[in-house]
Amino acid sequence: MTRLLLTSWGVLAAVALGIQLVRADVLATLGPSWSLSFVVTVGLGIWACHVEPHNRAAVRLLLFGCVALTWLAVSVGLIADGMSVVGNLVAQTLGLAMVTAQAAALVRYPDGVPHLAAERWLVGVLGGLTLLLPIGLLLTSPTVVPTWILQFSRDSDGLVLPVLPSPLHVGGPDLEVLDRSALAIAPLLAVAIMALRYRRLDAAARLRMGWPVVAALILVLGLVVNALAEAGALPHLVGDGVLIACHVLLPVALGIGIARPNLLDALGAVRRTLPYAILSLLILGTYVAAAGALGMTVGGRNLQVAVVVAVVAALALEPLRRTLLSRARRLTLGEDVPRDELLLRLGDTLEHTLDRRALTESIAETAREGLGAHWVRVGEVHVGRPLRPGERPTATARIAEVGEMSCGPALGGRPRTRARLDTLARQATMALTNARLADELAARLAEIEASRQRIVAAEETARRRLERDLHDGAQQDLAALLTRIALARRQLARTDVERLDATLETLQSDAAEAMRNLRDLVSGIHETTLADQGLVAAVESRAGKLPIPVEVSCGPGVRDGRLAAAIESTAFFTVCEALANTLKHGGAQRATIRMVLAGDRLRIEVVDDGRGFDPAAVRGATGLVGLRDRIAAVGGTLEVDSAPGTGTRLTAVVPAGA
C-alpha cells in the first residue's frame, strides 16, 4: 500500500510540475537542470521498489523524489502565480523536507537498516529545521526570504522577484545563512555518515555502495568541469550539460545499487579504469613531448621544419604508442579475448575433453576467461568466486543439455555482450549433446557386453542343469531297465514263468515311466505344444496346470497368427517365468495374461493380485535380469510395475515380425 501511494504521489507531482513549468514559461531553464533529476529519481525509486519491495532504502529513495517534485512544483507555481507569503512558507517547508528525505535516503543506504546513532541524529535535526526554520525566517528577517529555487533563478536567469515584508518580523539573529547552507551541508554530512556506515556493512551491502560512490566521484568531476565553464575555460553549454548529466547519474546510481547491484562491479571498474586512464595520459603525453622535442631539436627556430619533423616523428612513434597502450590495457583491465579467439579456445577444449563433467567444467572456465567475468555457471558447475548473498547473474543464455549458462560481473567492468554468451551457449550445447550421446553409447555398449556375458553364463547354467537332469533322471531310469532285463533273462533261463511275467510287467511300467520323464525333460527344454500349436495354445496349456485360476485373453490376430520361433519361445518363457514368480513369491490368488498386437510389436502383460514388491529393491535380482536380457536379445523391452500390497504387472514388448 505504501509503495502504491508513493507511486501515485510521484506521478501526480510530475504532472503538476509539468503544468507549472509550462504556465511559468521556464521549461527551458528549470526543466533540464532540476526537473529531469527529480523525475529520474522518482522513476528509479518506483523501479527499485518493484524489484526490492521489502528494501526500505528503495521506499526512502522514492519518498525523496516525491517530496522534491512537490517542492519544485509549488516553487514554480510561485513564479507563475506571483510571490506570496503563505506560498513561499509552504515551498520553504517542502524544500527542507526534501533535504531531510534526501539525507534519510543516503544515511540508511543501501538496505534501510539503521547502524549508527549519527543517522538518527542527522535526520532528527533536519526534521526539526523543517518545522522551525521557515517560521524563524519570518520572525527574524524583515522581508520574506524566497525559497531556494527562486533565489537561484533570480541570480542565474535574472528572475525579478517582488520584495514582500515579513508579517511576523520581530528581529533576532540572521537565519538566512543557515537556510542557504542547509541545501549543501546536509548532503555532505549524509555522505560522511555513509562513509562511516560502509565499514559496518557486509560484502553484499558494500557491493551496492559501489554505484553511488562512483556516481559521487563523477559528480565531483562534473562540478570541476562546471567551475571551469564558469571561469570561461570551457563553453557554458558543456559545463551545464555535464553538471545536469552528473545530477541525473546520482539517483540512477542509487536505484541500480538497490535493484541491480551486480550489474557491474562499479568499484572494480574504478580501480582498474583509473590506472588505465593515468597510464594512457602518461603515454600520450610522452608521445607528444617526444615528437615535439625532436621537431624543436632538428628545426630549431625554423617553425616549418620543426612542424614537419614533429609530424614525421609522430608517425614513426605511432606503432610504439599503440603497443604501449595495448600493454597498459592488458595490465590494468586484463586480456580482452576477441570472439574468434574465444571460439578457438572453446574448440580446443572440446577436442581434448571427453568426460561430460570435465567438459562442462572446461566450458565454464573457458567462458569465464573469455568473458572476463568474476564467475560463470554452466548447469550445476560453478567456476570463479562464490556468489554473494542475493547476487544475480548479469547475463544468461539457455543450454538445452544442462539448463542455462550464466555469468557474473566482469573483472574491472570489461564489457561483454549477450551475443558472445549466446554464441558460447550454442557451441556448448552441441558439445554437451555429443558428450551425452557418447556417454549413452558407451553405457549401451557396456550393457550389451554385460548382457552377452550373462546370456553365456545362463546358457552354461542351463547346460549343466540339463546334464544333471539327464544324469539323475533318464540315465538312472535306463540303468534300472537294463538291470531288470538282465533279471528277466536269468528267470527265462530257469524257466521261472510266473516270476518272469511279473518282471516283464514291471519292466514295461518302468519303460513307460522313463518315457514320461524324457517327455517332461524335452518339454522343459522346448514346449512341444508351442512348436505344434503356437504361442496361445502353449500359454493356455501351461496356465491350466497351475493351482490358481489364470485368465488368458488375446487381441485380434494373436491366436490365429504365428510368430518367429525365437519370438514365440521368448514370449512363452516370459509368461512361464512371470507365472513362476507369481506362485513362488507373490502369494497371488489369481492371475491374468493379456497378449495384444500393436503394429509390429507384441505386447504381453502378466498381472496378479499378490503381495507386490518394490522394484528398486530387487533391480539386480538374477531372475529379472536374466528375463530382461533374454527379451533384449530379440529387440524387446521389459517393465515391472509393482508396489507392496498392490500386486504386480509385468509388461514385455517384443517384435512381432514372422
UniProtKB/TrEMBL annotation:
SUPFAM superfamilies: ATPase domain of HSP90 chaperone/DNA topoisomerase II/histidine kinase
CDD domains linked to this entry: HATPase_UhpB-NarQ-NarX-like
Superkingdom assignment: Bacteria
One GO CC annotation: membrane
Pfam family for this entry, one: HATPase_c
Positions of transmembrane segments: 34-51, 58-80, 86-109, 121-140, 181-198, 210-229, 241-261, 273-296, 302-320
All residue ranges annotated as the Signal transduction histidine kinase subgroup 3 dimerisation and phosphoacceptor domain in the record: 463-529
Keyword Phosphoprotein belongs to the record: yes
Gene3D superfamilies: 1.20.5.1930, Histidine kinase-like ATPase, C-terminal domain (3.30.565.10)
Keywords: ATP-binding, Coiled coil, Kinase, Membrane, Nucleotide-binding, Phosphoprotein, Transferase, Transmembrane, Transmembrane helix, Two-component regulatory system
Name of the top EC class for this enzyme: transferase
Protein name (database record): histidine kinase
Annotated source species: Pseudonocardia oroxyli
Taxonomic classification: Bacteria, Bacillati, Actinomycetota, Actinomycetes, Pseudonocardiales
